[in-house]
């Protein structure tokens, strides 16, 4: 029955691809929808989706916010020109 195992593996990798794509392209609500899709139970897939979202969206957004805040503070309070 190697065909059955291959079909299951292909389905899992296909589902993983969809979850990764959704985590990267999604909004906050989509990530939390994935988290709560199993009755609130955290699954490996939901943890993976949150990790991808955090690395691809939340961290860069936070860094940009901090850099923007630092540039604003420097312009307002440090530069006397």
Mean pLDDT: 75
Uncertain segments = 1-7
CA radius of gyration: 20 Å
Number of DSSP-assigned strands: 0
Q: Quote the distance from N terminus to C terminus.
A: 76 Å
> Total number of helical segments?
3
Oligomer: single chain
Secondary-structure element series: HHH
Q: How many structural domains are formed by the residues?
A: 1
Keywords: Membrane, Transmembrane, Transmembrane helix
Structure description:
With 81 residues, this protein is mostly helical. It has one domain. The protein is 84% helix and 0% strand. It has 3 helices and no strands. It starts with a helix and ends with a helix. The relative contact order is 0.09.
At a glance:
Helices cover 84% and strands 0% of the residues. It has helices at 2-25, 28-36, 44-78. Keywords: Membrane, Transmembrane, Transmembrane helix.
């Amino acid at each position: 029955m190697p065909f059955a195992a291959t079909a299951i593996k292909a389905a899992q990798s296909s589902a993983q691809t969809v979850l990764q794509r959704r985590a990267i392209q999604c909004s906050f609500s989509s990530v939390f929808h994935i988290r709560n899709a199993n009755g609130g139970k955290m699954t490996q897939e939901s943890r993976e989706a949150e990790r991808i979202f955090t690395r691809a969206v939340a961290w860069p957004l936070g860094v940009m916010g901090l850099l923007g805040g630092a540039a604003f503070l420097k312009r307002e309070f440090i530069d006397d020109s």
